[in-house]
Amino acid sequence: MSDSEVSERPGSDGLHEDGSIERLTIDTIRTLSMDAVQKANSGHPGTPMALAPVGYTLWSQFLRTDPAVPDWPNRDRFVLSVGHASMLLYSLLHLAGVEEIDAHGKPTGKPAISLNDIENFRQLDSKTPGHPEYRMTTGVETTTGPLGQGCGNSVGMAIAERHLAAHFNRDGFDLFDHDIYVLCGDGDMMEGVSGEAASLAGHLRLSNLCWIYDSNTISIEGHTDLAFIEDTGKRFEGYGWNVIHVDDANDTAAIAAALDTFRATDDKPTFIIVHSVIGWGSPRANSEKAHGEPLGEDNVRATKKAYGWPEDAQFLVPDGVADHFHDAIAARGKPLREAWEAMFARYRAEYGDLAAELDLAREGKLPDGWDKDAPIFPADAKGIASREANGKALNAIAQRVPLLMGGAADLSPSTKTNLTFDGAGSFEAGDYGGRNMHFGVREHAMGSIANGMALSYMRSYTGTFLVFADYMRAPIRLAAIMELPVVFVFTHDSIGVGEDGPTHQPIEHLATLRAIPGLDTIRPGDANEAVEAWKVALTHTHEPSVLVFSRQAIPTLDRTKYASASGLAKGAYVLADAEGGDPEVILIGTGSEVPLVVAAHEKLVEAGVRSRVVSMPSWYLFEKQDKAYRDSVFPRSVAARLAVEQAGELGWDRYVGLDGRTITMSTFGASAPIAKLQDKFGFTVDNVVKVAREMLETK
């Protein structure tokens, strides 16, 4: 290209050096972001404008990815934790020429993001929603928006890379050695989840992790001095990170030098603090207006003029820009990807079993016979806590599912989520082959980290008390949005916690978890249902699961007398019935209340009442059954229905109907021995029988 051609480019007025192709590409990212937000009359233009040089430098010079094969397993991951800056990511994907793949990893022949997609930013059914969404848009590695979540996800991705490398790599076969890059901002730094995640990442010395912090000192309400004056760099030094400062986000050479330092660091994660002016070049630069709303047509024109850009041009991609950006990325990424594929072919010939294992992980499938050692518990009137059965099931299954990995928020002795078999080990700095994660008392980060692990081929699980689901609701919800099959284990599920009192006795938690779309919340009724719950959870490929287990012992039902626990797979099933016709009353139970309603049922049957017991561990699974099955469990002709659950009543009306009743919790619990609590709140056989009879008498 001649000098005269360069000088005629937009941006060649001296403001951006000599109108170089690099500056032209950066300003294309900026103007696409401005135009998309302006047309949508919604969105955040400032951060994409300010971080365009950072995104350009990272992608064009460092990110190891191939636009033609965007799901290559050893690609570097790019996480936009500042999800409100989604137009930055969409512009990068468009200019990089990333090719779209379908849900099965097959190319569709379409671009991941077309110019038309950018023009339809934030519109219904577009591939450019207001915040990036995993599965919706090729090239989006995780769904971001709630600040701090992308930071937590990235730690999970870094953990997964280290574990995959320890598990699969062999001499001469470095299948996994990729890095994870994150763009984050002041909001991410204020959210506690990022601090939890960063603390753990520093402890684990995850040197494959680089956070690039856009320090622009602006939030929605105004200057960050209103609420945030800490020295973030010193905080991260305290976490054990390598901290680098870049004084000007427009200084691409300094950005590149910082990224070179990250690549050369092998003993700690890296935190690059980039100082930027939000909405750079805009009359609203470094104002909350540039952050949270469109610039306005006049300001867009003025900004383009400052860039030396045609003021009336919209969605302009000057000649040569897309080719330059794509070629810079592909020239590095394509040879690396092709070399990896050739290496994997040799690896397959030498390590066939491991290669097949990786194939299954990439496809989200389980090994043959993965559940063959799952325990079967004999009938036992005393029984065991379902948390104990959970631990036995987990350990039996995990030995046959090598990438099943997780742990608890410092509670594995209580939640029984530790893997105890030989070789399980702990995932620790310098020893990344272990499968027991020690998250520390960091429930929120634990959830977001588990999501990041699931985004990187792992079958991840977490563990804590049910009452602390409050601390991790955001990542549970995001797991459902992303359709990630993470298993969230919760124990100490009711007032059965006893003496610890109402602060540790969950009441409303089951209802709020059941309210999350796409989340399978399962509360098993005995040890064998606990085993079945794990089987169901691990067969999910697009749903996260919440498994809810008791602290106290629950009788193990005699399955030669009562229906098989495999009925759990349908969400609700007839556990026990009376002879002589349709039931007069239906008793419904979950969890530790199932044996309670079974005992009440036996008393009613002895008294000549045609009673039915329905075990209902999962509303989600039950609603997936056809109408005929649902009606067979809950005949419309039976109005006398009683639900018994040591939790809030909310939601049970859909199953008990207008004429039904519940024995549930309408208050918080209390600190007392469990027997006293059950008596106080009506969870006794006599009370269940009494309420059932009252319904029959008032029919």
Folded structure, characterized:
- This protein is an alpha/beta fold and 699 residues long.
- The protein has three domains: 3-337, 3-Layer(aba) Sandwich (Rossmann fold), CATH 3.40.50; 380-555, Thiamin diphosphate (ThDP)-binding fold, Pyr/PP domains (Rossmann fold, 3-Layer(aba) Sandwich), CATH 3.40.50; 563-697, Rossmann fold (3-Layer(aba) Sandwich), CATH 3.40.50.920.
- Helix content is 40%, strand content 15%.
- It is built from 26 helices and 22 strands.
- Helix 2 (21-40) runs antiparallel to helix 3 (46-61).
- The termini are far apart.
Keywords:
699 residues, alpha/beta, Rossmann fold, 3 domains, six-stranded parallel beta sheet, five-stranded parallel beta sheet, 26 helices
Number of strands: 22
Tally of distinct domains: 3
User: How is the CATH topology of the largest domain named?
Assistant: Rossmann fold
The side-by-side strand order for the widest beta sheet comes to 12-11-13-14-16-15
Largest sheet report: 6 strands, parallel
Low-confidence segments, given as residue ranges, are 1-16
